[in-house]
Structure formats: C-alpha cells, structure tokens
Design brief:
By secondary structure, the protein is mainly beta. The chain is 14% helix and 43% strand. The chain has one helix and nine strands; from the N terminus they run H-E-E-E-E-E-E-E-E-E. The strands form two sheets. It has a five-stranded antiparallel β-sheet with strand order 2-9-8-5-6, with no helix packed on it.
C-alpha cells in the first residue's frame, strides 16, 4: 500500500507541474551566429513561465556544446529583460535561471510578445549565439 501511495503522489505532482508549465513559452533554437567561435553543434533552449499569483516570469536557460569552463551572459528579452550568467562545465554545458517582473511573454490582450535570447561571452559584446520565438 505504501508504494502505491508514493506512486499516486508522484503522478499527482507530475500532473500539476505539467499543467503549470503547459503555457510556458519556449525558445528551442539558441544557435551560434556565423561569426561565433562556438562549435557548429552548440545549441541551447530557454523556457519562460509566467506565474500570475506572484506576477513574475521565471526564465530558465540551458546551453550545450559551448566552450568549456566559460562564463556566458544570456540576455532574454520580451516585455521585460532578464540577465543570466551561465558557467559551462568541461563538456561545454551549463544552465541558469532568473526571474523577471510581470508577464514577459504576453501583452494585456493575451497576444504573445517576441522573445529574443542573446548569448555573449561574459565581459564581451560580440554575439556568440541567439534565438527567438513569436517574432515576425
């Protein structure tokens, strides 16, 4: 009976998380710019999830295949701007998160904002990678 209760609890929590993140905005293609010294296989993803009760947007970013042991500054912009510093590991992978005030993903009418993600090496201005969603 104890195992059954744990399984039910895990399924219930998983369902709640799926519902909470169901309306998240995802930037699935953060790719190196042509001039970037990053590997052509480098990639990244950003997830923006608005929490209405707190009036905050949680922003999570993951980078894979970038330069190892390097600090990157990630600028995520929509209705607001969030900065995240990510330090990659030996494999060039890293992740980070931060929060922005208000709903960065949609305007007052519920229309989606253009979300842009820009990655630079920390302390430099040259764009290393970028991606966007809902931009025309």
């Amino acid at each position: 009976m104890f195992k059954f209760n744990r399984v039910v609890c895990v399924l219930l929590v998983g369902s709640c998380v799926a519902i909470a993140y169901g309306k998240a905005v995802k930037v699935t293609g953060i790719t190196p710019t042509p001039e970037s010294p990053e590997s052509a296989d480098a990639d990244g993803m950003a997830i923006l999830n608005y929490h209405p009760g707190q009036d905050l947007t949680e922003v999570q970013v993951a980078l894979t295949g970038f330069m190892p042991y390097t600090d990157y500054k990630v600028l995520v912009s929509g209705a607001g701007v969030v900065n995240i510093i990510i330090t990659t590991n030996a494999a060039g992978n890293g992740s980070g998160h931060n929060t922005g005030v208000g709903d960065m993903t949609r305007d007052d009418n519920g229309d989606p904002f253009c979300i842009v993600v820009e990655v630079t090496k920390d302390g430099e201005t040259d764009l290393r990678a970028d991606g966007s969603v809902n931009c025309s």
